[in-house]
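Pair request: fold both.
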Amino acid sequence: AAAAGQGAGGVPRCRAAAQDVPLGQAAKGLQDSAAAGQLGGGALRDRAAPLVAGGDAEATKLFASNMNARMAQRFFNTVLLPAVQDDVREHGKLNFHLYLAVKKALYKPAAFFKGILLPLGEEGGCTLREALIVSSVLAKVSVPMLHSAVAILKLSEMPYSPANALFLRTLLLKKYALPYRVVDALVAYFVSFAADSSVPTLLWQQCLLAFAQHYKTEVTAEQKEALRDLLRAQPHPKVTPEIRRELFSSRSRGDPYLAPMAADAADAPMDLLG
């Protein structure tokens, strides 16, 4: 069994197979081996898993900082993600050290999304508890807008699942200034449910509400009409009124902007304006 600790001078070390190896050196060694073509198939998983199994989040941080983006993505996908899923499914919750490891994985956001979050969304077998844990990490860590925008775009192209809706809602609540292309893709994603015979879950409704709250002024008037039809087709007694209030009490993208003071002056009697 692997055990994590510190060597001389406080350098993080990991004890695996009776060898005391500095984690940074181990990560660099794995990257060099991969560059030489020596880590094909499951070799990366077999060699890296003992280093993470010790439960030291510093291992993941050092792997993320010492590996290039491609190798970090592979490490997250083949080592960290299976360890997280196994721990959640066995204990019903995630070990604190593994939780910190997932948090450290966001040091490389592109590798995190490609190696952990998007595979969870694509596989369809992600449990809601797994999604809740990953989303709680995502909500606490600052992530660059462009990385999150790409993830939102990819999630909106995937088939619906409760996990995907939770990931989307978490990213939308971070209130990014999203490109119009991403906003348009989200509108198309939500409108596609208008003809769906199944009733969307409350989680989906909350995701739509988060979108309406933070991007109502980024939606065109035509898109709002399409969303109005969606709300008629898929109503929710408690959430739909809130969505309507957000969408239809605000200006739309492309509307001329009239400053409040100018609007008040336009409505004032002429004699008050001198």
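--- second member of the pair ---
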Amino acid sequence: QIMADVSVSLGEQRYVTEGVRRNVRSDGRTCQDCRAVVVESGVFPQANGSARVSVGRGETVVVAATKAELVTPSDDRPNAGQLDVSVKWSSIASQTRDDDAALTDRVKQVFCESGAIDAEKLCISPGHFAWCIHLDVMILECGGGEVDAAVLAGHIALRDTMLPRLTVIPAASEEEEPDIEMDGDVLAAEALPGAADLPLTVSLYALGSHLLVDPTLVEAACARAALCATVTRDGKVAALRHQGHGALHPEALLSALRLAVRVA
């Protein structure tokens, strides 16, 4: 029981393992079937972008929102903005953990290392003004698959993000700083550059010689290992993360990669 913080009896482990061997799960899905996913965007009008993701019958629920802030670029990157990511567990969730930092690192790695959002395109005036996009993700309920759901919610929120059009007013002299004029017309707002090209993640859990897509908490607790594949918009696996014990045969790994691309 290494892949989820849930206590599972030996009888439950045998039940899950035998079901997987027969390619049928407790909710009627096959090993390669995902639960239904409901995605909503624009759920928080006050945010620059927002989303809500519900998996299954509300077993896993994640919300995400973005806030665009004008900041002064850092001295080491005067011509670049930044994407700031935070992932937290809600105190009202039936399953909570204290791994906010670990989840934040995983989601931030998916988005920031993809290169989809070019930090230089977030710069308004080098050395003076740049956008800092704050992405806040909260897990309201967890019934398994929280990493993929958090990435999906963040992905949709970033794609939903609209930035007001800005005009740089040059400084009147070398001693003065340039200024910014913001267009108040909502229809003139622009989408976040590169957001449409952000990747998604697909987590696959190994039970015996079988791979499970979108496991429940009990199924995840019975797994010996997990693979989390980052899949780009054009169907390529950009990164692969292994967790747990044991290795996969090369043929099984290739099958896992093909499955991840199909699911994404």
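Observation on the second member. The first helix runs from residue 10 to 21.
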